[in-house]
Every structure is written in C-alpha cells, then in structure tokens.
Design a protein that fits this description.
Oligomer: heterodimer
Bound molecules: zinc ion
Helix content of chain B: 40-55%
Number of helices of chain A: 15
Number of strands of chain B: 11
Low-confidence stretches of chain A: none
Radius of gyration of chain B: 21 Å
Strand content of chain A: 15-25%
Number of helices of chain B: 17
Strand content of chain B: 5-15%
Radius of gyration of chain A: 30 Å
Distance between the termini of chain B: 12 Å
Largest sheet of chain B: 11 strands, mixed
Number of strands of chain A: 16
Distance between the termini of chain A: 73 Å
Mean pLDDT of chain B: 96
Order of helices and strands of chain B: HHEHEHEHEHEEHHEHHEHHHHEHHEEH
Largest interface: A-B, 31 and 47 residues
Mean pLDDT of chain A: 90
Structural class of chain B: alpha/beta
Structural class of chain A: alpha+beta
Largest sheet of chain A: 9 strands, mixed
Shape of chain A: elongated
C-alpha cells in the first residue's frame, strides 16, 4: 500500500497554438481569419485537399515559428521538414495532417528549449521538448450533443490554419505549476505578437499526468488555462483514490468535460493509432539559413523575462510586482504609460495589480475594449498623495473611473468628496462619540489598543472620510486630557 | 481520309494562322475519325462535344485576332489523361470513386496549354489512378491497341497513346510514375517523354506517387513533342517540387540547334535490359542502336540489381499511393454513399471498398502495411536506400555517357487479359522504365520498328534537364527510320 501523500506527480503538456496573427493559412493563400464567418466560405482547392492540389509553405508562418522557438530558448533546425500524419476523420480533408515529427531522419522546426517560471517565489525551469508547425483540421459540428445529433456538419474554414504544437518535458509537479507555466507561455506568445490568446480556440492543451511508477493518463483538448488546472486537480484526486484502494491506473486517453468538471475515459492506449509518418513528398526539405534566423531574431520584440528585469531596474519593483504586471501585457503597458506622469512606481503598481485588475475582472471588461483616460489614474494617485483623498476614497473612486469615465478632480470638487481634515469639525465628532460610548472610552483609558475601536466609530460617523491619523491624534489628546483632569 | 489527320501540328498551326477558319475543317475531320474509330479502341473517358469545341474555337479566334502568331498551340486539340484536373470537365482517374467529380480548377499544365491557344478535346482512358501497365484496370472499360485490337495499348497513359496512334488527337498529355508514358508510347508506336522530375508542374495532377509522378508530352513526331514540352515546362510557384531555376526553354530551338550541329555523343547501352528482352524486341532495338552507333560512340554498360530496382519502385510507389489516396472518403466529392446511422469508419470503409478497383485496393493496402510501425524500416527505408544507391550509380554513368539506351519495354504488347493471370510478370515488365522515375532523370520512348504489325520502342535516358539531347537523338532516329506521323489503320 502506498502512502499517497509521498507520491510524486509528473505532468507534461502539449499545447496547440493557432498563429492567429497570420493573414493566410499554412499552405495556401486563403484568409485565415475564419472566425464568425459563414461555414465553408474560407476555403480553396488546396485547404479542401482537392485531388491534384499541392501545398506551398507560408513563409511568414516559418518566421513566426522561429520567433517562438527563439523566445523559448530552443535549438532551431537548419531544415524545414514536413511529414504526413495519417488518420481518418471527416474534418481532415486529406485524411492526413501535414505536421512535423521527431525521429531518425526527421526533424521538427525546434527542440530542446526551456521556459523560466517562478513558483512560490522560487525559480523553476520547464524544459521544452520540441515545437512543430502543422495545419489545423476543420471542425465537425453537431446539433446539440454528439449522441443526439441527427447529423454532423463539417466546416472547413479552419482547415489549414497554422498551428504550433509546443511539447514540454514532464517537468511540472502540480496543477498550479502547470497554470503558472501556461500563463508565462501565453504571455510570451502575446509579446511576440503571433497569436491573440483571447480568441476562441486560439489554444488547446493536452495534458499528460501520472504518479511516479504508475500509468500515464492523457487528457485531451482542454480549452483554457483555468480548465487545465481544474482537470489536472480532478485527475490527481481520482488517481490517488484508485491507488489508495490498491487499484491500477490504466494507460488511457480521457476527455475533459468542462461543464461537469470531470474527466471521462475516451479510449485505452493499448490500441494506440499508427499514424504511418513519412516525409511529405510534396514538400521537399527547405534549408533554414542562419541569415534568415538572424533576421527573425533581430526583429524580436522585448520578451517578458527581459521586461520583468527592466521593470525591476527601471522602476525598482520587486520581482513579484514586476512579474504580475508583465504577464498581463496590457496592464504592464498601462503601467508604463502612467509611469511617465507619476513616479511613485510601487504605489502605482499596487493600485493596478490589486484594485484595477480586480475591477476589470469584476466588470468582466475585455481590456481591448477598455477606453480609459490614464491621466485619471495619475490624478487619483496625486490627490491621494496630497491627502485630499483617503485610501478608502481611492478604492471607491477607482471603479467609477473604470466604469463611469468620471473626471476625478471635477468629481471631488462638485461633490465635496474630500478627506475630512477640518480639525474643529473632527473634534466635535469625537466629542459626540465619547458621549455616546462611555464604556468604550473607559476601555481606551485602560487599554491603549482599544483606541482603535474609537477611531472606527469616528470613521463610521464620517462615512470613512475622516483622516484616521488626525482622528487618532485628537482622540489621544482628549484621553490625555481626561486622565490629567481625572474626570 | 483528310490530309489534316496525319499532319504534324507545326504544319497545322501554319495553316490555321493563315486562315483560322481551317480550324473548323480540321475539327470536322477529327470528329469524323473519332466517330469511326472510338468504338473500336475506346481512347476516351470524356469527349468534348464538337459543338462545344466549335463555339470555343470561335471565341478563341475572336479574342486572339491580333496575337494568333504568338500562340504556340493555336487551334490544336490535345487529349489529356484523365488524372489531370480540368476545370468544368469531369476528371475521373478512371475510377468509380471520381466518376462524377468535376474539378473547380485547372492543372497548371492545362492553364498553360489554354494560354497558348490549345484546345482540350477530351480526357483519355487510363489505368485506375495510374496503377497498371495496360489500361485494363480502368473502372470503365479497357482501351485497345489500334495496331491490334486484341492487344493492350500499354499503360497507364494508354488512352493518350491510342488517341495519337489512331488519329483522334494530334497531341496528348500523359503522366509517368514508373513508365506510364513510355510504355504505351512504345506499344502504340508514338513518341513519349517523361521529363526531369520538377521540370513540369504537378499542380493539378491527381497524385499516385508524388516523388515520381511527372506529366509529359506525347506526340507522333519529335518536333511536335518538343513544342508541347516547351509549353508545359517551367517553374510553377504552386508546386514546391518544381525546379525554380528553369525558365522557359524553347525545346524546338534547342532541338534544331543540336540537329544542325550534330554533336557526337557517348552512348551507354544497358546490357541487362537488352538481354532480358524478348527476341523481336531485342533485335529491333539493337538495330536502332546500331543506327545511332554508326555516328555516335557506343559502349555496353551494366546496370545490375534490376529485381531490387523493381521492388524499391513498387514499395515507394505503394507507400505514397496509400497516403495520397487517403483523401478519397466520399465526404466532400466523388462517390456518395448513405452515411446515416453509421460510424465514420464504417462509412469510409464502404466508400473505399465500392469506389476503388481491385488493383488500387491492393496497392493501398500494401502501401499502408509498408509504412506501418515495425515494417517501415524493413521495406520503406530500405527502398529509399536503394534509390540513393541507384542515383549514385546513374551519376557515375553520366560522367562517362551522355545518353543511355535500352528497349522501352522488354516485351511486345500482350493480349488483353493476358497479364491478369500473371501479375508478377506485369510488374517485372516495368524493369527498364522505373529507374528514370526513381532517379528523377528524363527518359524518352522512340518508335523504332514493327514486328508482326506491333510497334517496338527504344528508350533513351539522360541526366537531369538533358531533354534537348533526348529530342536530338529521337530526331536522328526519326529521320533515319521515317517513323513519323504514322497512323494505325482501323
Ligand atoms: Zn486554401
């Protein structure tokens, strides 16, 4: 019997990323912008695999693949080689997929790379086994569910769109690590400008998971980072339970049902398909010259790791803040725009990371549709610095800026919505509180910690607008006075 | 019989250019002939009706009034093998699978022909998906040899060869994977050229074995052959295997240049291929070689391991075929079956069982087996190794020789059905032709004699892009034997 808590979890990922920024498909000139288009309108004889048609490689796709390979610290092959991977499925027009393969006589575009991630403050390396360029199949659409649909519809608009298949070594030790890795990977791809991860179906993940010494299970076709974490967590619980009961983990492929939150067995791996890989005779190997690679490398933009380093240096941010900002590219961009006008960088970063990000998620705003006057954020911070606004007010005003597009200065002026710093007025409020809560005053006289309760009562009376520091001073001096007078 | 029927196209074009309306007279005589002979030999799967072509030619003349002189094929009908895609004209590959398939696009070679004023007169019969050497595996009907209708015309471009030999078309396109142009050219007494791999675009050719398939011209004389080659050769950006540096070459000019200079060539005579031939073939081709050797410098050379060459050829061809033909599943085009209430696998199986003939099913099955894990190294990888060895051997040969010659086919045209009883014998009959496809070099079949009324062809091979040399010696032989523009009497 195994003590299941000591079992080591081994996770490897296979990520299919659509290079959505490509204008045309991988092997023909058909527009790759198929989303929300009528079915089978973005097709040509080549991507339909009509008899006699031949593929020609989209040069830009190769450039993008090399850029990704570089960003993932991979060795890049000196030859571009394609193989055919055979299986019969109606969404695959040729019944083979043009892909790449690692093996004797074959080479993928790139291999042996790595990605640095940080887990609980500790750095970790996740190795990349290989990167393939391949074509996407079409899509089979069912009416309702696959079981009840009276017929199937096939849409070939997606057929031939460029995919990168990125395969990691089994280096991930937990669902959380898998999530952190994917967040980093997606950020890198976004920085490279090769894909828009926000688009439906832009990336799909197959996850392999096993406990050391037990059978490996593959979960197919997971559509989001959150689902990857959930599916893996589910599998860990399921597999631990089987192992604890003395059972055996079958080597199998499972499907992630994101609605029910469970994995379902698809097929046993014993009947693993024979894809009959062989070099595509229609696509002779193409040399990838050093000059071509250099040209791509030269045009690479700043990547997340570089940007994190720069944020730490240029803005004196710690690694955690820099990382959170950078991995949300738009937020990092926003940060840098504001930083031009406001130099308390840590304060700015905190506002963006904790409050701003929270409200964006809360309102479910797509950052691409965010029409924001970034000067409002700068003004908000300045008014806070000047003592005109309290923390609480800042936190209340921020969502209004995001949602309502208000001008902070106008709003503050017209509503009198400022911090209470009027000493005379506050003294009156404190006297009132003392009158109403003699018991609390008595406590405070005996125990300095109880002062906070009194401060709280004053804040409540002023709807949080009182300057807590000033209130504390007033209360303490009144308590002193009471002690000295002995009343 | 009209004087036009056996006229070479370079003469026909001159006539049409001086008076475009003669094109209609020509079409008249051609269609009269087709009506007379087609039932006896069945060259075509699809014949474009004469009215349609008459209208097409009317437009052609109207639209090209001022540039007729520049069109290399103005008014010339061309018979196209039915595995070459023609927009709006059904393209069946002689298979039930594609019986009703009408491509929405033209093959590059077809575009080029149309651009030069050529006319597609019909789609010719062939072995199903080009798999066969007799045109008997056609799903529709076998084509018969015009010189003896009890015999096969060869294959797989049998229909293209018979259309030429019987005067149904003056030019034809075939495709050659292991000899499919040269074999029927030899059996039907016409000229057929398999160009260097990559010289002619494969875009639109329905693939059998991609690494060896090549479209090529067929004609009744060498100059016509050169004209058609000039039209179809050249780089095509739509075909990644098309050779990029080949600009358009005027093979007629190249041919005439050599013909006037008459350079002496070093000719290698492949010993094993002569020894392995039937007696009449051996005699006739040896006589032709003697004609060449009276001028050029000849020497016997050896090309051993012919059995292995055949094996390697079939292994590679079947492996690629199993992959290329995977797309025929009845989902998007071609044969339709009822998919209701069945799994995809069941439906695909039924389509492919009903749609493909025996030979095609056999080759797909063997090909899938060859590529499967565990067998790939034993068969496919070894075949590729042999292919490399053969390439090296030919490189070596071409250091010492400009041309190598052999009989095109080691046998005379067999009787219909004869080969079905002995499938291994058909495969072995390809021994002389497959090497050119494995190596990617050009090869031509030249009619050199008849035996009991049956044509015999001589094959010449040269190194990559040496098509002019092949045309040159073909022309020399043509001049000496007088085998040009001859039609079989039917
Ligand atoms: Zn397309």
């Amino acid at each position: 019997m195994n003590n299941d808590q000591t079992l080591k979890t081994i996770i490897g990922l296979e990520i299919h990323v659509q290079l959505t920024k490509l204008k045309t498909k991988l092997f023909c000139a058909t527009s790759a912008d198929y989303r929300e288009k009528k079915p089978n309108t973005h097709v040509c004889p080549i991507c339909l695999g009509l008899p006699g048609t031949l593929p020609t490689v989209n040069r830009k796709a190769v450039e993008y693949a090399i850029a990704v390979a570089k960003a993932l610290n991979c060795e890049i092959s000196d030859r571009l080689m394609f193989v055919r991977k055979h299986y019969f499925y109606p969404d695959l027009p040729k019944n083979y997929q043009i892909s790449q393969y690692i093996g004797p006589g074959f080479a993928p575009i790139a291999k042996n790379g790595y990605v640095k991630i940080t887990v609980d403050g500790k750095p970790k390396i996740v190795r990349i086994r290989r990167i393939n360029i391949e074509e996407d199949p079409g899509r089979v659409v069912y009416i309702g569910s696959i079981e009840t649909s009276p017929y199937s519809l096939i849409d070939y608009n997606r057929s031939g769109v460029t995919l990168l298949e990125i395969v990691t070594e089994p280096d991930l030790g937990s669902p959380k690590e898998a999530r952190i890795f994917l967040e980093k990977l997606i950020a890198i791809l976004e920085y490279l400008g090769v894909t828009d991860p926000g688009l439906e179906g832009a990336f799909r993940v197959d996850a392999n998971i096993s406990f050391e010494g037990f059978g490996r299970v593959e979960i197919k076709n997971i559509g989001s980072i959150r689902d990857v974490e959930k599916a893996l967590t589910y599998e860990i619980v399921r597999q631990r339970r089987i192992i604890a009961g003395g059972g055996k983990i079958e080597r199998e492929t499972r499907h992630w049902d994101s609605n029910k939150g469970v994995t379902i067995s698809l097929r046993s791996k014993e009947f693993e398909e024979d894809y009959r890989y062989f070099p595509d005779p229609d696509l002779p190997p193409l040399r990838i010259s050093k000059e071509f690679i250099e040209q791509v490398v030269k045009s690479l933009p700043e990547l997340p790791d570089e940007r994190i380093d720069r944020f730490m240096k240029q803005y004196s941010l710690d690694e955690y803040r820099a990382t959170v900002l950078v991995l949300n590219k738009w937020l990092a961009d926003l940060f840098e725009m504001c930083a031009k006008h406001y130099d308390k960088y840590k304060k700015l970063a905190d506002l963006l990371i904790t409050d701003f990000l929270r409200w964006i998620n809360e309102f479910n705003i797509d950052y691409k549709n965010l029409r924001l006057d970034l000067l409002q954020i700068v003004k908000l911070l300045r008014l806070w610095d000047e003592g005109v606004l309290s923390v609480k007010m800042v936190k209340e005003l921020l969502p209004q800026i995001i949602k309502g597009g208000i001008d902070v200065e106008d709003y503050v002026k017209s509503s009198g919505y400022t911090r209470l710093v009027d000493k005379e007025y506050l003294e009156k409020v404190v006297e009132e509180v003392f009158r109403e809560s003699p018991k609390a005053v008595q406590d405070a006289l005996e125990n300095p910690k109880a002062v906070n309760y009194l401060i709280g009562l004053v804040m409540k009376k002023t709807s949080g607008r009182a300057d807590p520091q000033l209130v504390r001073e007033i209360i303490l001096s009144m308590l002193d006075k009471m002690r000295s007078t002995g009343s | 019989m009209s004087k036009y029927l056996s006229m070479p196209i370079h003469k026909l074009i001159e006539e049409f250019k001086t008076d475009p309306s003669k094109t209609f007279d020509y079409l008249d005589s051609l269609y009269d002939n087709i009506k007379r002979v087609e039932n006896k030999i069945r060259s075509f799967i699809t014949i474009i009706p004469q009215e349609t072509l008459d209208r097409y030619v009317e437009n052609l003349i109207k639209e090209n009034k001022h540039r007729i002189d520049n069109l290399k094929l103005f008014g010339i009908p061309i018979a196209v093998k039915d595995n070459i895609s023609t927009k709006g004209i059904r393209t069946t590959c002689a298979s039930k699978m594609l019986e009703n398939y009408v491509p929405p696009y033209n093959a590059t070679v077809v575009e080029k022909i149309l651009r030069e004023g050529g006319i597609i007169i019909g789609k010719t019969n062939m072995d199903e998906f080009a798999m066969g050497s007799t045109t008997e595996t056609s799903a529709f009907y076998p084509t018969k040899n015009p010189w003896d209708t009890t015999r096969v015309p060869g294959g797989s471009s049998g229909g293209s060869a018979t259309a030429l030999a019987s005067g149904e078309a003056p030019l034809a396109l075939g495709s050659d994977t292991g000899g499919s142009i040269r074999n029927p050219a030899s059996f039907c007494g016409v000229y057929g050229l398999k160009p260097t791999y990559g010289l002619v675009s494969r875009y639109g050719l329905i693939a059998y074995a991609s690494s060896m398939d090549q479209i090529g011209p067929m004609a009744r004389n060498v100059v016509d052959l050169a004209i058609l080659l000039s039209v179809i050769a050249g780089h095509d950006p739509r075909d990644s295997t098309s050779v990029p540096f080949v600009q358009s070459v005027d093979y007629v000019q190249e041919l005439y240049k050599l013909h006037h200079k008459e350079p002496k060539l070093r000719i290698g005579v492949i010993k094993e291929f002569f020894e392995g031939s039937e007696e009449p073939v051996k005699k006739a081709t040896a006589k032709a070689v003697d004609l060449l050797c009276s001028y050029h410098e000849c020497q016997e050379i050896s090309l051993p391991f012919s059995k292995q060459i055949i094996a390697a050829y079939y292994i590679i061809a079947m492996a690629e075929a199993s992959s290329n033909l995977a797309r025929f599943d009845g989902v998007r085009y071609g044969m339709k079956i009822d998919f209701t209430n069945r799994s995809w696998d069941e439906a695909f199986t039924e389509v492919r069982t009903k749609g493909f003939g025996y030979e095609v099913r056999k080759r797909i099955a063997i090909g899938a087996y060859i590529l499967s894990a565990g067998y790939r190294d034993m068969y496919y990888i070894r075949a590729l190794k042999l292919r490399r060895v053969l390439k090296e051997r030919f490189d070596q040969i071409f250091k010492g020789y400009d041309i190598v010659v052999s009989p095109t086919m080691p046998i005379l045209p067999p009787r219909l059905g004869e080969f079905f009883e002995d499938p291994l014998r058909i495969y072995l009959a390809d021994v002389n032709t497959v090497a050119a496809n494995l190596v990617g070099i050009p090869a031509i079949s030249i009619p050199v004699d008849f035996y009991n009324g049956l044509p015999i062809g001589l094959q010449a091979m040269a190194k990559q892009f040496s098509e002019p040399l092949l045309l040159y010696i073909a022309k020399q032989l043509e001049d000496r034997t007088g085998f040009r523009d001859i039609l079989a009497q039917l």
